[in-house]
Amino acid sequence: MSQANNEKVVLDANVLYPAPLRDFLLNLAFLNCYVPCWTEQIQFEWMDNLLKNRKDLKNSQLKRTVKLMNEAFPHANIKNYSNLEKDLVLPDENDKHVLAAAIKSKSRIIVTFNIKDFPIAILDKFKIKRFTPDDFVLMLFKRNESLVLQALENQLKSLRNPPKTRSELLNTLKVNNLKKTIALIKKSDR
Prior knowledge:
The protein is an alpha/beta fold. It contains ten helices and four strands. Strands 2-1-3-4 form a four-stranded parallel β-sheet. Helix 3 packs antiparallel against helix 4 (59-72). The radius of gyration is 16 Å and the shape is globular.
């Protein structure tokens, strides 16, 4: 096991929305690849969108997931950031809370699918970078390949209902927009 990485990273709602991607990112955090951060608003956004799109899920199930996330990472839930929002300008005003949380938590990275909503010129003022989940995990893979592979194995072991093969999990993560990461993992498997 490598030394702990104390780099704080804000996970936007859109990367927490798909369960396989959320689980993989959290497995990476469990292995100290980074320190995850989010807010109640971020948690509410992904839950609300998921409930709108998946009628088979119940609010109580997702609240349990959030509770478990907050218990597993007790310092992840950033508070008292809203006063920073008024001075921020972003293409999508609805994303100001994400940047405010990153500033408040002293995070150096925001992981989001909406990179266009976080322009480099604005983030540079705060020494914050933004990555897609794929590019973020690729960066972690290049830092410590064995930990990323261990996170994958940990996720695979946790899948019981239904269980998946390694190949099925890799395909699921690929469908969840980790295409470059999965290609690199498959290449390292050879």
